[in-house]
Amino acid sequence: MAELTHVDHRAFGPLYDADSEVLVLGSIPSPKSREMKFYYGHPQNRFWRVMATVLAETLPESVEEKSAMMRRHHIALWDALSECDIVGASDASIRNPVPTDIEGLLKKTKITRIFCTGASSYKYYEKYQYPRTGIHAVKLSSTSPANCAVSFERLVTEYQQIIANNS
User: Fold this and answer.
1) How many CB atoms neighbour CB 110 within 10 A?
2) Is residue 124 exposed (0-12), middle (13-18) or buried (19+ Cβ within 10 Å)?
3) Whole-prediction pTM value?
4) Are 94 and 120 spatial neighbours (Cβ–Cβ below 8 Å)?
5) Do the bridges between strand 137-140 and strand 90-99 make them parallel or antiparallel, or are there none, so unpaired?
6) CA-CA distance, 104 to 53, in Å (whole number)?
7) pLDDT tens-place values along the chain, 167 residues long
8) Per-residue buried b or exposed e for 153-167, using 16+ beta carbons within 10 Å of the residue's own CB
């Protein structure tokens, strides 16, 4: 097995503002996302294409454009874990997980709905944060390039739940 690397997510925190109503969680930033200091940074990750389609927006290119798009739609981004030991971007290799303070984030926002982008973020959210927040998350398929079996069209259909009943 490849060597575990300790990842501390605190280099960049959640994307949110006081008007955020929905929280979308990954597990922990990938090496490319950590390098960019922003979410879903791998060029093959379909997250931004999916969200732009769901939100009927032009595909954002820069971190500023991505942030602005999410804020316009009152969507916050963060991860279920603040730190862990991991091999590359393999969620299956995660050891020693430390959860983020989602309970604290909820107190600063209007968030009432939480979505997880993949099985790992869902598992860690439900295990560590649900008991404190009382809000069950909705598990969505991962937009990662490793999850190429799920079509872009299916991702868009699933991710439509994020804007359903959202003001």
Assistant:
1) 15
2) buried
3) 0.92
4) yes
5) unpaired
6) 30
7) 578 888 787 777 899 999 999 999 998 887 888 788 899 988 889 999 999 999 999 999 999 999 999 999 999 999 999 988 888 777 778 888 889 999 999 999 999 999 999 999 999 999 999 999 999 999 999 998 777 789 999 999 999 999 987 54
8) eebbebbeebbeeee
Q: Would you say the C-alpha torsion 11, 71, 141, 143 has a positive or negative sign?
A: negative
Q: What end-to-end distance do the CA atoms of the chain give, in Å? A: 46
DSSP string, 130-162: HHHH--PEEEE---SGGGTTS-HHHHHHHHGGG
Residue 24 makes CB contacts below 8 A (sequence gap 6+) with: 75, 76, 77, 78, 114, 115, 116, 117, 162
Structure-token pair, residue 39: 């979410």
What residues contact 93, with CB distance under 8 A and at least 6 apart? Answer: 1, 2, 4, 86, 87
Report the phi/psi class of residue 165: left, alpha or beta, with left for phi > 0 and alpha for psi in -120 to 50.
Answer: left
